[in-house]
Amino acid sequence: MNNRVPKISVVMPVYNGEDYFSEALDSILQQDFSDFELVVIEDCSQDSSADILRDYAKRDKRIRPIYLRKGLGVSLACQRGLEGSRAPLVARMDADDISMPSRLRKQYDYLQLHLDVGLVGSDYQRFRTGALGEQRLIRHVSLPELDAKREAEFYETCRVEICCPSAMYRRELALRVGGYRSFFINGAEDRDFVLRMHEQARVSTICERLYYYRINEGSTFRHNRSGRDAGRAMARYCALRRRCGLYDPLTEAMASGGLARLPRVLGLPSSVSIEDLQQDARLMNGLLYDWLGRRPCGARPLSSSTCAKLYLGLISSRLREDGGLWKGITCFARVLRADIVCSLSLLGRAISKLFRAAWFSLFASKVMRSDLA
């Protein structure tokens, strides 16, 4: 066995991916950067994915297969791959996507040149494969390189503008922020991961198409959108709480006994289960915007640009639900009131500290004059 540490570890979870698995493996093995290991986590597939992996592993020693004894889901499979990787840089890859031959080299060079960047993505192409194997391009997504202003906006609004499977990141930093969290079972684990990475280091993009993202009939992008949107809302909810100086409910739940305690940590009725939070987008979006409207006075206020973008998202999401325009305007008013209350609370504290400092200065000067007299 080769014990030499490679420069890059590519982490690829696979579950029932026999249709496109070989194509994904070939796109990594044919990279023009060869100093890597390919860590493939086989998540108890019911098709021939495990057989395909064994065949490839026999032919190419850079492949390090991990066969799980029970299905863990994509989030925990990614975490197992991250923990099992050896290189200082980790590249993510989905088992039905395609990486351009220069992807690893260009992302490696970028991270070597920009030491303050913790994670880098790239432009990508969405495509669909038809019944006869023909590929139909859907949309080329061009992501502008994040300058200081855009990155600050990205951070404040807790938005993720990176195609997460196209990302390469620093392993040590990823482990420090906690890696991939088990709550996210429907495709939002990468979004939560990127938001936490961005709190510790810069994130960036390479303005070049290095990744092809496949839309197929079995992908989360097409199915279970409610679960995917619920995960995205939870990722944003946790990130906004951290921005306001409050505790992360997922971290709190895990520290107090596990994810089953999450509804109690969130102050929800006992009838709400962890499965409801993972699957019900309306419940999670309601939780997010209800919290925005009831933030405690001790929370740091959000910036005006952040509030404006959140308000627009709030109205748009509420208008799509029952209640129409009036419900959207009502929620908007509650969020606006909460932000004003937070701002006035902090302003009051600042004025109080100023008066105390002025009084102490005046008292000290009187004492000094009396001592001199």
Mind explaining what this structure looks like?
- The protein has 373 residues and is α/β, with parallel strands linked by helices.
- It has two domains: 8-214, Spore Coat Polysaccharide Biosynthesis Protein SpsA, Chain A, CATH 3.90.550; 225-347, no CATH class.
- It has 14 helices and nine strands.
- It has helices at residues 21-29, 49-59, 74-84, 103-113, 148-157, 171-176, 189-198, 225-243, 249-255, 262-265, 274-279, 281-293, 304-319, 324-372, and strands at 8-14, 36-42, 63-67, 89-92, 98-99, 117-129, 135-141, 168-170, 202-214.
- Strands 1, 2, 3, 4, 5, 6, 7, 8 and 9 form a nine-stranded mixed beta sheet that branches.
- A hairpin with a 5-residue loop joins β6 and β7 (135-141).
- α7 packs parallel to α8 (225-243), α12 (281-293) packs parallel to α14 and α13 (304-319) packs antiparallel against α14 (324-372).
- The longest helix has 49 residues, at 324-372.
- The protein is globular, with a radius of gyration of 24 Å.
* Percent of residues in helices: 40-55%
Number of domains: 2
User: What's the name of the CATH homologous superfamily of the largest domain?
Assistant: Spore Coat Polysaccharide Biosynthesis Protein SpsA, Chain A
For the record, the CATH architecture of the largest domain stands as Alpha-Beta Complex
How many distinct helices?
Answer: 14
